[in-house]
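2024-03-11 09:14:02 INFO receiving multi-entity request
2024-03-11 09:14:02 INFO entity count = two
2024-03-11 09:14:03 INFO echoing inputs for audit
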Amino acid sequence: MSTANGSKPVLTLEHVSVSFGGLRAIADVSFSIHDGEIVGLIGPNGAGKTTAFNLITGFLRPSEGRILYREVDLNRRKPHEIAALGLVRTFQRTSVFANRTVFANALTGLHRQGRSRLWDTILALPRESAAEKELAAQAWEILRMVGLDARAADSAGSLPYGEQRLMGVALALAAKPTMLLLDEPVSGMNPSETARFMQLIKAIQAQGITILLVEHDMRMVMGVSDRVVVLNHGQVIAEGPPASIQQNAEVVRAYLGRRGTRAGDS
Amino acid sequence: MRRIAPAFWLILFLSIPLWLRDPYFLHVLIVTGIFIIAAMSLNLLLGYTGQLSLGHVAFFGIGAYASSLTTIGFDIDVLGLVRIVHKPWPALAGLIVATALAGMCGYLIGTLSFKIRGAYFIIVTLSFAEVTRLVALNWVELTQGPMAINNIPPFTVGLPGLGYIALWNKAYYYYLVLLVAIAAYVLIARLVGSRIGRAMVALKENEPLALSVGIDVTRYLVLGAVVSAALAGAAGSLYAHYIKVIDPDIFQFMYTVTMIIMVITGGKGTLSGPIVGGLIFGFLPVAVRSFASPEAQWIIYGLLMIMIIFVLPQGIVPALSQWMESRSSASRTSAWAAAAGPAVSRTGSEREHGERQ
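2024-03-11 09:21:47 INFO inference complete, emitting structure
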């Protein structure tokens, strides 16, 4: 497991701001993520966490500042192009292709891995079936990794909530990310599902994938993250290893208000 | 069962001219077949990418005009600057030109509307159909306007040693339509069953998610529009050479509505939906015309469509396949129970036996 210190940053936000009307959702935010680490992005509701995700993955454009991924400027790039660079996200609300089977979902996620060309498909050339077989094998591998292989034939919309979250992660993994952005992956999961999910995150990290994680479940974030970045009112108010963040007075104040000093004691 | 079904339908459709002696029914079948091709093309957009083209008849009409003019030839002045003279070509070349030109128009519409979805896509396609109708109506030098293009020659087939045979015969024309329909079906089936089809359905189901896994949805929307428009153009060409007269009425909105009704009732997003819906609404006029005036016919179509949608909201084909699936799984469980039953009772009696000992 590589740590923050020493290795070079892969994702860098430089003085990024964005406003909706008069509201500055993100104001002059700068932080960077290093290769192979797991970073937790936390903050109270409305702090700008999901907005930051949307900016990084091209669903929103920053009004100021710039975002670099492995020395590539992401400005003006479309979401699918950013995904092609290896920066892949999941969504806060369950996001699966609900009317398709779990297996078809995985195959759809593998889209960019497909090698077949239009003429191969139309003329049903042998190359087409070879490519499809290859994709099917990869789909099984991903479903086994997240533990949905037994559900392959079920429609994704019929899965229980926790498994739909896993489906979302499987879709993102199918896009072969080098960095994964998880937006509240364990919300709605029960404790045992959450514990299993933490193991999955570690397994993903072990494959060399850098992870940025937005999550409200503090035990989960502190347990799994190598480093934590805290946002409040669209600004970074603290940054550091989980242990120091838990002690940080400003973070405690942001979460609990001015009188919440007692929580800092524990 | 699954294996032999396509062969069964193929033999049935191939054999129709052999036992169907009534030329009027064969005529209805040919026109229905042409509209089924158009409906299949509409289904590729509506059923798989989820975008409704309310101007689909434009591609059909462009195909009809392109094919007719390629076959008949024309002599026009463009803005008084260039004189374009085109010598007549064989009808088969007309079919190819119609397919290509309609496909290009599909590319144009798909690219123009690359950012717009849903209601905006509908408006763009609807306007496009109206513009093409006005062009056909007013560019009299090229299209004869309301005077219509007459005497469109039939398709000819060149046979080695026999020269050219004109397809005046309805049975031959039926086979030509069937051939194009099968080609269209196979093309659509291969596209939607592939990685391309998965990308199209991903656009329909959840566009942000599709983008997030790196699918360039616009590209697949444009591809769908091109293939869809090209097939509609081919259907328009078949129509022109069969009916032999075309006028700007071919761009009537009702034709688009007919295609949509066929797709929706049959089941959008299924391969055989447009065929089932097309056969129903192709033959309905024949059944209804004996007792209803043309105006009343449209009311009857509307009522029938509302009834079908009310009872089977997904369309006929998805409802049928669900019903068959539930029946087969029910029979499987009952078969399992029958197989398990004696075994269970045997272990029960064995246990009794053992206890007695």
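2024-03-11 09:21:48 INFO post-check: Residues 125 and 293 of chain B are 31 Å apart (CA to CA).
2024-03-11 09:21:48 INFO post-check: Confidence is low (pLDDT under 50) at residues 339-357 of chain B.
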